[in-house]
Amino acid sequence: MFLLYLDDSGSAGNPNENHLVLGGVSVFERQVHWLSQELDKIAARINPSAPKEVEFHASALFSGREAPWKSLTKEQRKGVIKDVLGVLGKAHDSTRAFACVVHKASFPGKDSMEIAFEHLCNRFDLLLKRIYSVEKNPQRGLIVLDESSYETTLQKTARNFRELGTRWGVVVNLA
Question: For residue 146, what pLDDT band results from cuts at 50, 70 and 90?
Fold first, then answer.
């Protein structure tokens, strides 16, 4: 089984933001432990007394306005970002990054989070179809969302994709 972890940046309802970004990483289930260990090592360097409290959010890292990032220089914060990306770079070949940026003004009256989610669900399903087509390996996918005010809406939306489909067809490989 492949897991797709998603997190958002921006808010669909915030008129002061032009874009909403929904992105994440897809990993084969047995790779989660390795990735977690590698990220925990970086977190332990940043906050040795409470590494589990460290979250690697790019906007917080770049701004350096909140703990634990405010105690680091700009160059140190850039180094942390490079280290985190390096973990993904060293990950198993099956690891994939997914992202969708929605220019909100281009979709008036539409929910930009739902647009991004639909695109990513479709792309994830296509990846799973390609794995089956090329490797004859029938894998399913599971989407994991970071805490969000959209959780309930996106759960319903995902169910609809399996039953009614997206604009590109029915999503068949999500568990």
Answer: confident
DSSP state of 114: H
Say if residues 81 and 61 touch (Cβ distance below 8 Å).
yes
Phi, psi of 8 (to 5 degrees): -110, 160
Q: Say if residues 25 and 5 touch (Cβ distance below 8 Å).
A: yes
Lowest mean per-residue pLDDT among 28-32, 38-42, 66-70, 142-146: 142-146
Q: Report helix, strand or coil for 71.
A: helix
How would CATH label the architecture of 2-163? 2-Layer Sandwich (3.30)
**How long a stretch of residues is the chain?**
175
Q: Are 137 and 131 in contact (CB under 8 A)?
A: yes
What does the pLDDT average to over 117-139? 94
Alpha-carbon dihedral sign for residues 73, 76, 78, 84: negative
Q: How far apart are CA 131 and CA 113, in angstroms?
A: 27
